[in-house]
Amino acid sequence: MILLFTKKHTQFFIRREMELNKLIELKDLTKNFDDQQVLKGINLDIYENEFLTLLGPSGCGKTTTLRIIAGFEDPSGGQVLFNGIEISKIPPYRREVNTVFQKYALFPHLNVAENIAFGLKLKKMEPIIIKSKVERMLKMVGLEGFEKRDVTLLSGGQQQRVAIARALVNEPKVLLLDEPLGALDARIRKQMQFELKKIQREVGITFIYVTHDQEEALSMSDTVVVMNNGEIQQIGKPTDIYNEPENRFVASFIGESNIIEGIMIKDYLVEFDGFQFPCVDKGFEDNEKIEVVLRPEDLDIVEPEEAKIQGIVRNITFKGVHYEILIETQFRTYKIQTTDYAEVGRKVGLKFGPEDIHVMYPMGAY
Amino acid sequence: MKHFRHLIKPYLIWSILIIVIPLLLIGLYAFTEEGNAVLTFTFTLENFRKFAESTYLNVIIKSFRLGILATVICLIAGYPLAYIISKQAEDIQSFLILLVTVPSWINMLLRTYAWMNLLSDNGIINNLLGLLGIDPITMMYTDFSVMLGLVCNLMPFMIISIHTSLSKMDHSYIEAANDLGANPVQTFWKVTWVLSLPGVLNGVMLVFLPAISSFVIPKLLGGGQYMLIGNLIESQFISVGNWNFGSAISLILAAAILILMRLVKRIDVMGRQEE
Ligand SMILES: Nc1ncnc2c1ncn2[C@@H]1O[C@H](COP(=O)(O)OP(=O)(O)O)[C@@H](O)[C@H]1O
Ligand SMILES: [Mg+2]
Question: ipTM of the assembly?
C-alpha cells in the first residue's frame, strides 16, 4: 500500500486539500459478506463540490461503498467520517445524503410531484413552499408541467430526471448516484451525462458517482477512483488516470494499452524490449522491475531505420477516424492507432517520445 | 392464436350449466310463491317482505357484525405475522408459509370438533383451569367460540394474501423512503402499507365472504340456537323446506356482498389518490 503513494499522488492530495474542505473520509473501510471480503481497507477523502467517480469492473465493491456512505450497509471495520464526525451508527434517514437509485425506485403510488415532495412533506414544510420547490426542481431537470404525471408511465430518461429531482430537492450535502445511466440507451446517456454535470455545477454539491464505464467516468468527473477487487487502485484527475496509470490494472481498464515489462535503470532512463529509452519518470529504485504503458495513439509508424523498435505490419483495420494497426516485433505485438496507412507485410519502425512512456509498478508488487 | 379461441367453448357451456342456470333458478324461486305445481308460477314479492321482519333483519345484521369483526381480527393479527414472515430469508419464508397452511390440511369439521373438545364446560381448558383452582368458564356456544372458530379457520387466507403482496414488493422503495428522511414508522405507513393494500383488500375479501355466509362453524360452535344468515338459508332449504324464502335470502346476501365489494374497491382507489 505504501508504494501507492508516489510523489505525484501526494501532490495531488495537497492540491485538493488547499482548495476545498474535506466532507467525507473513509478510513480503512472493510466489508465482509459471509466469508467474502468485498471491501479490503478503503481509504478515501471526498471534498465539497467535488464530482467524484468510483470506477471499476462489476463486483469490485462500488455499490457496497456507496451503500455504506448512504447508511444502508454497516461497515465491518473502519470509519466513515462526515464533516469529521463518525456516522457509521447513524441511520440513513438522519444523514445529509440522498441517493439516486440504480432502478430509480420511484414510488408507484405517487405522481411526479408527490414523489419529489416526499422528503419535504416529512419535514412538515408549508404546502406552498413545497409546491414552488417542486416546480423549480422540475424546471431544472427539464420536466416542467409534469407534476400530475403517473411515474410508472414515464420513459426511462424521464424517470431518471424525477429521481434526481426527488433527491436534490432535499438540498443534501452529497448526492449518491449508482450507475444512474445504466438503463438508458446510448443517445440519451450522452445527453444525461452532460446534464448531470451541469446540474452538479448549478447546485454546487458533492456528487459521488458509480459506474463501470471508463469513458463516462473520464468525461464527467473531477476525481476518478479506480477500484478492483475491493481495493482502490488509483485516485486522480481523469487526465492523470489516463496518462499516468499507476499499475497494469488501471492501464488496461482505462482505454487500450500496450503494457511491457521492463527495468528502470535509473531516474529518467528505462529499458525494455532490449533497448534503453529516456523517459520522464523518476522516484523508482535503480534497476527496479517495472511495467511500461504505451498508449496506441501515442505511437507512430516511421521508416525502420528511424526507430529502435522494428516490426512487420500484421493487420490494419479502419476504425472511422483512424486505423488500428498490429505490428509484430521480436518480443511482442504492438497495437497502434494512427491516421497513416501502412500495408500489411511492410517493415516499419515504432516511434515514441520520452513523454509517451508511462512507467508504473508491476501488478502484484503491493 | 385464433384457433385457441374455440377452446373457451366447453368452459362456457360448463359455466352456464353450473353457475348461470342455478342462479336463474334461485331468482325464479325468490320471486314466486310456494307451491307444488312444477310448471305454474305465481309471482310475488312476499318472500322479500317477510325478510324485512325484525327477526330476520337481526340475523343479517348479526352476521355482518360477526363477519366484519372476524375480518378485523384476522387483519390486525395477520398483518404483523405476514410482515414478520416477509422479512425472513427466502427459504425460511416458504417454510413459515407452509406452517400457516398446516391447519387447513386437516378437515374443517375435524378441526371444529377439536375446538369443541377444548372449549366445552368439562373440556381440556376448563379441566386445566380446575387444576389451578379456577371455576369453569363457559366458552362453548357463545359469540367467543364462534369467533374463535371463524378466525382460526380463515386466518391463513389473510396471512397468505398479505404476505404475497409484501414479499413481491421491491425493497428499494423502502430504502428510498429511508433515504428521503422517513423513519421506520413513517416508511411503513407511507410506503409499505400503501403498497400492500391490494393484498390487504384481497385478504379482506377472502375472509369476509366465507365468514358472513358460513354455517357449519356457527352451528357446531354456536349451538342450535345460533342463527347466522348461512344457518338461516340452510334451515329454509333443509329443515323448513321453504325454498322460495331461502332463495330470496340468498339473493339479498349476494346483493349486500356486491354492494360491499364495490364500496371496498372505492376505498382502495380513493386511498391511492389521496396519498
Ligand atoms: N447483500 C449481499 N450479500 C452477499 N454478497 C453481496 C451482497 N451485496 C454485494 N455482495 C457481493 O459483494 C461484491 C461487491 O458487490 P458490489 O458492491 O455490488 O459491486 P459493484 O457495485 O462494484 O458491481 C460482489 O461480489 C457481490 O456479489
Ligand atoms: Mg453495482
Answer: 0.80
